[in-house]
Specification:
Radius of gyration: 19 Å
Number of domains: 2
Order of helices and strands: HEHHHHHEHEEEEHEHEEH
Oligomer: single chain
Distance between the termini: 24 Å
Amino acid sequence: MDENQFKELADILRSKPRIAVLTGAGISAESGIPTFRGQDGLWKQFRAEELATPDAFRRDPGLVWEWYDWRRGIIAAREPHAGHYVLARWEEFFPDFVLITQNVDGLHRKAGSKNILELHGNIWQVRCAEEGTIAENDESPLKEIPPHCPSCGALLRPNVVWFGEALPRETLEKASASCARCDLMFVIGTSAFVQPAASLPFIAAEKGAKIVEINPNPTPLTRFADYSFQAKAGESLPVIDALLSERSEE
């Protein structure tokens, strides 16, 4: 990791710019959470692409919920790491800060972040299939599979975006607007392949924002980033935060 680039970035942060952060599966992987796709997502010979769909839920809601109950059990045993906590502190430090995440695991919330735009929803929320009402649900394991709405008795579904579904329009619009007005954008632990999230850094760059990428491996975004750190978020964010704290105290 380039120490000079870290120091330069800390100096920029010292001016308290408007910040947008986009996080992906990589930041959660550092906490031991699998992607639940490919070999990581294989469960009873089913793959995520076969279960995380509206059609699968219509055919067999019990099976889909068994899979999500299994996933929730794995996630519940994991904790946020140092990178998550840095982002939560930065929300308090910077006057204009928004965290956009592609993750559904809720680790950012667990670390204390509040101003979060969850592009793909949250696995710890349920949505009534009839009324569309959303509620928090942290039961692990679930008391009832499949769960039902306490208000109308209809089936509840995980409040996540399934394959074949569009991202919540309002959330995506807020994310795009936040990127368009930010001065500095961090892109952390994402492959920069999945659309429409992958376009958000380019929205920020077109409006003049500097782009900071933190990812162990190069991505399609790397060559466009102003700062690129091929490192883990749990290691690099605390370094930046420490430098920022030193300079803020000077």
